[in-house]
Amino acid sequence: MIGNDGILYEAENADLGKVSFYVTNSEKWAVSNVGLFFDRKNPINFQDTLSQATDTNTSELFRTARMSPGSLRYYGLGLKNGPYTVTLQFSETGFDPLSSQTWKSLGRRVFDIYIQGHLRDKDFDISKEAGGVQRAIAREFRVNVSENYLEIHLFWAGKGTCCIPVQGYYGPLITTVHAASDFTPTLSVIAETIQRDRTWLIIGIVVPVSVVGLVLLVFAAFHIRRKKDDEHEEELLQLASRLDTFSYAELRAATDDFNFSNKIGEGGFGPVYKGQLADGRLVAVKQLSVPTNHRNNQFVTEIATISAVRHRNLVKLYGCCIEGNSRMLVYEYLENKSLDQAIFGKNNLHLNWPTRFNICLETAKGLAYLHEESRPRIVHRDVKASNILLNVDLCPKISDFGLAKLYDDNKTHISTRVAGTIGYLAPEYAMRGHLTEKADVFGFGVVALEILSGRPNSDNSLDREKIYLLEWAWNLHENNQSLELVDPTLSEFDTNEAIRLLRVALLCTQASPMMRPPMSRVVAMLVGDIEPTNARSKPSYLTDWNFEDMTSSFLNDNDETPLTACNSQHRDENDIATSPSSRTNPLLPSPIHVSESMISDIIGDGR
Q: What is its EC number (predicted)?
């Protein structure tokens, strides 16, 4: 019915049992009931009255109310994210207004009101707030919708009376529920697509019989062309219930037409821009630059993977844009950018020791969640400092795990296409494509050493024995000089925590995946629940490749400038060839020196 306020109210009159969930015909609202009147032979879901409620212009609305013995929830479905005003209307129709002089006047209905999980009104008493029974009262609440749904929870906490006016009479009671957005909603891309398809259907019905043949031909061609797109859109419709969808125009406006000044990074799939949505949220927009006809499946998989996991140490995905050839992901914006910029001095952040140790611990918790707690289980494949972002409180959040490959229990994976970054790759993954969660453990060990030392894992500007961080850390460890690895810019640090962190990092970077601890055990060692064991021996990938440079004997005294391999530390390699013959092994600790005189002897006089 339409109330005098101009609002169209939908009937919600399902006969809910003791544990029930019901979606209305319009699919805009759902209601959930939990509880049973144990002391009442005939359970009641509704409170009906022929009396006319006062203090309202639409008294017909108050002749029926939903009643629950314990917990009653209403869900607003498919809402556009943003601010809303929720209006709840009540009227105490269960108590007789003529019984004010009898014991029945002592009846009290008391319950709590929660909205979006937050307590908004404690010990709410309808008749007390309305000034009597059979009187209407409305409660308005301002709320913010961030995940496309609204939850209103009325909860009876055992207060008030239970036997007035009859045995087994208590619990929350509500007459109407209404939610109105405080902004002008816009149709999502998916909704526009559905509308467009319906329009075509209507046109097909009204076409004269004389052109049916032509319509069939056009429809056949259209159907063939759209078949793959429809399958893709069906996958996206399944995701729409969990994710917000943004139009290209929205994201273009948010990023000032993807202005270069708003560009904050270059990820594996394309550039990332800072933006501000119409509702005021700061976001990071990841614009895919790869050909969409080659990456649709990967894009849908990435959305599904990221939306399935939630953890305080993982970057949150707000939604996506799928419009034309545009494929974009919208993430939460992290104010302090990436960890590598913080620890390598590329911004003005100065991380003290407690902050550094906490970043290691929280990052380990995020990886432990991906490996052992999330469903599906996820291997990140590219754990590095630039993929760890810091929020305003310097709490780390792991990003860019949409490229991770999902795997089932008790399965190992041999990948012919290694994705990762030189310097952080585990030996078995870099050389043989053998991928398990222990590849992430290795990357974490390298990151922990970088946080501890304040320098990247490879730096050709340093003395030769310090160029490769892993090798230098092991040399110091073997000579009982481990604390020399600590960043000299730290004015003070906890010696015990530093040694513990170093021992954990050396365990994580062992050559054999079996010798590396799972991330849950890493967390336990960092918090001190488990004492980290000493890494027994230097990894074979350091000892076997640490050879003597035989070319140095050919150098002349006046020829001191060798040709060295390029430092590839800062290349963001997302696809690394796995053939040993196709490039120099990224884990080789020392460059080969070749003099100009050697080259002259080898190639002769230019022939």
A: 2.7.11.1
The whole-angstrom separation of Cα 249 and Cα 165 is 58
Burial degree of 149 (CB within 10 A; 0-12, 13-18, 19+)? middle
Residue 576: DSSP 8-state: B
- Per-residue pLDDT tens digits for 522-561: 999 999 999 988 776 787 777 665 544 444 444 444 444 3
Q: Name residues whose C-beta falls within 8 Å of residue 193's C-beta, 6 or more positions apart in sequence.
A: 233
Structure tokens at 145: 């919708």
Assessment of whether the complete model's pTM goes beyond 0.70: no
Nearest to 228 by CA among 289, 291, 293: 293
HEC profile of 92-113 = CCCCCCCCCCCHHHHCCEEEEE
Active site residues: 382
> What is the distance between the alpha carbons of residues 467 and 361, in angstroms, rounded to a whole number?
26
Running DSSP on this structure, what letter comes out for residue 263? E
CA dihedral of residues 340, 342, 343, 344 (deg, nearest 10): 70
Q: Judge whether 44 and 50 are in contact, CB under 8 Å.
A: no
Alpha-carbon gap, residue 551 to 549, rounded angstroms: 6
Q: What share of the chain is helix, strand, coil (3-state, %, to 5)?
A: 35, 20, 45
Domains of the chain: 19-181 (2.60.120.260), 189-332 (3.30.200.20), 339-543 (1.10.510.10)
Cβ atoms within 10 Å of 501's Cβ, excluding its own? 25
> Residue-wise over 512-524: b if at least 16 C-beta within 10 A, else e?
ebebbbebbbbbb
Q: Are 396 and 313 in contact (CB under 8 A)?
A: yes
Using alpha carbons, select from 450, 449, 416 the residue that is nearest to residue 435: 416
First to last CA, the chain: 96
Q: Which two tokens stand for residue 3?
A: 């109330």
Give the tens place of pLDDT for each residue, 256-273: 999 999 998 886 667 899
CA angle, residues 353, 359, 365, in degrees to nearest 5: 140
| H or E element at residue 221 | helix 212-240
Three-state secondary structure call for residue 404: coil
Separation CA 329–CA 332 (nearest Å) = 10
DSSP 8-state class, residue 316:
P
- Spatial separation of the C-alpha atoms in residues 562 and 552, rounded to whole Å: 9
Distance CA 14, CA 83 (A): 29
Q: Sign of torsion, CA 392 394 395 400?
A: positive
Residue appearing with tokens 């040709």: 563
Residue of 196, 197, 188 whose CA lies nearest to 244: 188
Tell me the pLDDT band of 198, cut-offs 50, 70 and 90: low
Cα angle: 468, vertex 470, 474; to 5 degrees: 120
The residues that bridge with 576 in the sheet, in sequence order, are: 418
